[in-house]
Design a protein that fits this description.
The longest helix is centred in the N-terminal third of the chain and has 12 residues. The protein is of the alpha/beta class. It has one domain: Ribonuclease Z/Hydroxyacylglutathione hydrolase-like (Metallo-beta-lactamase, Chain A), CATH 3.60.15.
Length: 350
């Protein structure tokens, strides 16, 4: 028997007990149905890079030999300042909110990535990974949201209660990988469009959105592993592009993106939930790999995401940031090339 890391990370942790009791299939997302491709075999999606699936024995090895890092039970913090309503032509601004939730403001367009304002990332509201700090921005302080990007359907990236709030407040367009629109439709969430890797759409203000490969997996229950597509996104503006990696391991897709689009003006790269690396490595970048990804992409700037909000693996709350800064010092990388923004902090990209 083989098991996906999705039973461990990506919010599914919170449902393990319930799933084992027979509820896993009820949480499963609708399965994508469509023609075969180089990353879809007719039933399941696959990565361009090799992603080794771990056995039950590997899972037991981790669970019985865990060395979890330190997490605070709660870190209270004031929300960041209200972002500008919009930025002007040619301008690009990134605000880090929490986990993989960021606000990208580009050429007058407001884009929210993997939005999560819920207390837990889990199939149920009473169990599962709970946030250890408040969101960096109050929901009420968001500017008008035009577009929402969903990288994949794990609970820490695809939070249905937050999506409902966004639809009620802003009626944004929602873009996600193949198969996810059926889940949103089933849940009464309007405005979603599926994209395959390399699909391109033109948004308002002349911004182009392209779904790009990532190295990860998908599932919301036990019967839908890799039944919908995971993805990253490129937002091409008038003066360069922003790359949102979503949730991804270090893989061949990075070079493909660099070759197709050139160096990004800013790359939003995940650095957390990476330990133990022998178990998590293929589907979550380590801080060192995130630095190497920024270098491979020749990114003018990088911004760290996917850390310090939900305890999903064995790295401690502050460990990803500390490891990233140590790697930058070792490799003599200028600190102003890879930013670690505060929760709720926004910065203009030069």
């Amino acid at each position: 028997m083989r098991i996906s890391r999705g039973c461990i990370v990506g919010g599914v942790v919170g449902g393990l007990v319930l799933m084992a009791a027979g509820y896993g299939c009820s949480f499963s997302a609708p399965r994508y149905r469509g023609p075969k491709s180089d990353h879809f075999d007719g039933r399941r999606f696959v990565n361009y890079g090799h992603v080794e699936e771990k056995s039950v024995g590997d899972l037991l090895r981790w669970v019985t030999h865990r060395e979890p890092g330190v997490w605070q039970e709660w870190t209270d913090a004031q929300p960041g300042p209200k972002p500008p309503e919009r930025v002007g032509p040619g301008q690009l601004r990134v605000t880090f909110i929490n986990h993989a939730t960021t606000l990208i403001q580009i050429d007058g367009l407001n884009v929210l990535t993997d939005p999560v304002w819920s207390e837990r990332v889990s199939p149920v509201s009473f169990a599962g990974p709970r946030r250890v700090r408040p969101p960096g921005l109050r929901f009420e302080d968001l500017p008008p949201i035009d577009v929402v990007l969903i990288s994949h359907n794990h609970y820490d990236h695809c939070d249905l209660p937050t999506l409902r709030r966004l639809v009620d407040a802003f009626h944004p367009k929602i873009y996600a990988g193949l198969g996810n629109a059926r889940l949103f439709q089933k849940e009464g969430i309007d405005g979603a469009t599926d994209l395959d890797w390399w699909n391109e759409v033109t948004l308002d203000h002349g911004v182009t959105l392209v779904a790009v490969p990532a190295q990860h997996f998908s599932n919301r229950g036990l019967s839908d592993r890799n039944a919908t597509l995971w993805t990253g996104f490129v937002l091409q503006g008038s003066r360069g592009y922003a790359y949102f990696a979503g949730d991804s391991g270090y893989g061949p897709h990075l070079r493909m993106i660099r070759e197709r689009f050139g160096p990004p003006r800013v790359a939003l790269l995940p650095i957390g939930a990476y330990k133990p690396e022998w178990f998590m490595g293929p589907i979550h970048m380590s801080p060192v790999q995130a630095l190497h990804a920024a270098q491979l992409l020749s990114a003018e700037r990088a911004v760290a995401i996917h850390f310090g909000t939900f305890n999903l693996a064995d790295d401690g709350q502050d460990e990803p940031v500390e490891a990233l800064r140590a790697a930058m010092q070792r490799e003599h990388e200028p600190m102003d090339r890879f930013w670690v923004l505060g929760f709720g902090e926004g910065r203009d990209i030069p």
